[in-house]
Specification:
Enzyme class: oxidoreductase
Helix content: 40-55%
CATH superfamily of the largest domain: NAD(P)-binding Rossmann-like Domain
Radius of gyration: 24 Å
Order of helices and strands: HEHEHHEEHEHEEHEHEEHHHH
Pfam families: 3HCDH, 3HCDH_N
Keywords: Acetylation, Differentiation, Fatty acid metabolism, Hydroxylation, Lipid metabolism, Mitochondrion, NAD, Oxidoreductase, Spermatogenesis, Transit peptide
Organism: Aotus nancymaae (Ma's night monkey)
Pathway: Lipid metabolism; fatty acid beta-oxidation
């Protein structure tokens, strides 16, 4: 009886181990949709860590610029990583680039991929149309992931029939440098999918953190309200302080100037950039898009209220460093 029991236990244990081994998908082949800064960065780090990558965008011109940008970025990495062995650096660049192919037809390349990472414009309708189409051509095991920083992952996943194989993979710019990746699990995301993506991010040399499908995930949920509160400090109405009859009164626009707010957060909190510097770096249109989206979801939340001064700047196409002017001027 003891022998039978031991055999049964071994059988169950072996079965459980085998079951566990097939739970995760080992990602080897990656398709990245979108050849912008984020998509190119994701393609670069995936290729540099032994994955085969297909980078997809709408035109060959866009893809040519993307590959050129990837090559330039790789040479910077190689110069630092192989400072004492330039030849090895050149080999690293050539090998990584050889792992990246390009295509203008996403549907034709997803049939053999393990993971599709979408990094296109932050437009829910466009993302839904893309994933709905790819869902028809991708293999059964293929995991879909969106790099969105502001849209609800569930709303994107619902455009497909593979909600259990859909999650968020939020990288940070610049992707080759920033170590963090937020892995977003929706209520429908399977544990198998989640664990597979966590393992994938680790193979990229990144540090994954997990979060539910909540607005802004972790970083933006904390960062964007901080940026908006900085704007509110600056955009308060004029107020008069002191006794104007005694000549001691003075007027102040806002609770503090944007320059002083930036200085305070850099010297007092140890931040590398002040909130207004960061807003201009990120792009005021990007921040406005995020806040507007959150405001639609929860209009009564005081953290999600829009900013009149930021809206005005966006209307005037003063979007920050990329346009030469935002809260500050850049020349």
């Amino acid at each position: 009886m003891a022998f039978v029991t031991r055999q049964f236990v071994r059988s169950v244990s072996s079965s459980s181990t085998a079951s566990a081994s097939v739970k995760k998908i080992i990602v080897k082949h990656v398709t990245v949709i979108g050849g912008g800064l984020m998509g190119s960065g994701i393609a670069q780090v995936a290729a540099a860590t032994g994955h085969t990558v297909v980078l997809v965008d709408q035109t060959e011109d866009i893809l040519a610029k993307s590959k050129k940008g990837i090559e330039e970025s790789l040479r910077k990495v190689a110069k630092k990583k192989f400072a004492e062995d330039p030849k090895a650096g050149d080999e690293f660049v050539v090998k990584t680039l050889s792992s990246i192919t390009t295509s203008t037809d996403a549907a034709s390349v997803v049939h053999s991929t393990d993971l599709v990472v979408e990094a296109i414009v932050e437009n829910l309708q466009l993302k839904n149309e893309l994933f709905k189409r790819l869902d028809k051509f991708a293999a059964e095991h293929t995991i879909f992931a969106s790099n969105t920083s502001s849209l609800q992952i569930t709303s994107i996943a619902n455009a497909t029939t593979r909600q259990d194989r859909f999650a968020g993979l939020h990288f940070f710019n610049p992707v080759p440098v920033m170590k963090l990746v937020e892995v977003i699990k929706t209520p429908m995301t399977s544990q198998k999918t989640f664990e597979s993506l966590v393992d994938f991010t680790k193979t990229l040399g990144k540090h994954p953190v997990s979060c539910k499908d909540t607005p802004g995930f972790v970083v933006n949920r904390l960062l964007v309200p901080y940026l908006m509160e900085a704007i509110r400090l600056y955009e308060r109405d004029f107020q008069t302080y002191g006794n104007s009859n005694s000549g001691l009164g003075f007027s102040l626009k806002g609770d503090a100037s944007k320059e002083d707010i930036d200085t305070a957060m850099k010297l007092g909190a140890g931040y590398p950039m002040g909130p207004f510097e960061l807003l201009d770096y990120v792009g005021l249109d990007t921040t406005k898009f995020i806040v507007d989206g959150w405001h639609e979801i929860d209009a009564k939340n005081p953290l999600f209220q829009p900013s009149p001064s930021m809206n005005k700047l966006v209307t005037e196409n003063k979007l920050g460093k990329k346009t030469g002017e935002g809260f500050y001027k850049y020349k």
